[in-house]
Amino acid sequence: MKSKIIDLRSFLERNKIFFEVLAATALTVTSVFVSFKANDIANQANNIATQGNNISKIQTKIMTSENTPKIEIQRINYDDPTKTNPVTKWLVFNNNSNISNFEIESEISFLNIVKKDHKEIDIRLAEYINRQGKFTGQNEGLIYEFDNKYCSENEFLTREKISDFGDVNVKTYIEMSFINVLGKKEVVHFQISPLIQPISKSAWESRKKYSRSINTNAIYLEHIEKNIKQIKSQNFQ
């Protein structure tokens, strides 16, 4: 028995380096395996986090869509109570979410004249619409109404009196604001005459800049005879 133990000890001493290398190799292989496993776990965690972020983004988009007001404007024409003057009225609808503090903040209007030689003249108009309209008391659906007083009648008479000079149209743009359900102020812009369509902020700013560049005083459509003389003489100072 003693002889076997001596032989085993001798064998181990002779192969000491081999076992040390084997042990080191086993440790290295184990550490590489553990490293790969750790990377795999980390990748899985990153994938889960990415999926979570994507779900969060989708939920945010859904919430934003659900809470984003959709403003629509319609136009109707009617006679005033005396049945003598035509009036144009605009109806403002909110088709999604609740809003509050709705307001028409600004208006830009032009009397646009296309002359017989196809040259165009834009004259700034003052107070074409009545911005102090009527609230319906609702936050969704029909929320606001406003009109242009008797400008429709004055526009018709102006068009009739200068028909030999050119074609007349009114171009009007408005800036509106409101508070959305999240408590944030939103500002939207629309063209409401002759077309009704939403416009971008940059388009609004462009119209505003153009209006300021017109070196003439704004006119009131009710001053028909005065306006006719100025238009035909092309003197708008």
Largest sheet: 5 strands, antiparallel
The structural class is alpha+beta
Regarding CATH, which class of the largest domain?
A: Mainly Beta
Strand order of the largest sheet: 4-3-7-8-9
Task: Explain what the structure shows.
The protein has 237 residues and is of the alpha+beta class. The protein folds into 2 domains: 2-65; 71-233, Immunoglobulin-like, CATH 2.60.40. It has 5 helices and 9 strands. The protein has helices at 2-14, 16-66, 151-161, 201-213, 224-233, and strands spanning 71-79, 86-94, 100-115, 120-125, 134-135, 141-147, 166-179, 185-193, 197-199. The strands form 2 sheets. It has a 5-stranded antiparallel β-sheet with strand order 4-3-7-8-9. The chain has a 4-stranded antiparallel β-sheet with strand order 1-2-6-5, with helices on one face. The chain is elongated and about 135 Å long.
Describe the secondary structure blueprint for this structure:
Elements: H1 2-14, H2 16-66, E1 71-79, E2 86-94, E3 100-115, E4 120-125, E5 134-135, E6 141-147, H3 151-161, E7 166-179, E8 185-193, E9 197-199, H4 201-213, H5 224-233
Antiparallel strand pairs: 1-2, 2-6, 3-4, 3-7, 5-6, 7-8, 8-9
Helix pairs in contact: 3-5
Considering the chains and any ligands shown, give keywords for the structure.
single chain; about 240 residues; alpha+beta; Immunoglobulin-like; 2 domains; five-stranded antiparallel beta sheet; four-stranded antiparallel beta sheet; 5 helices; 9 strands; elongated
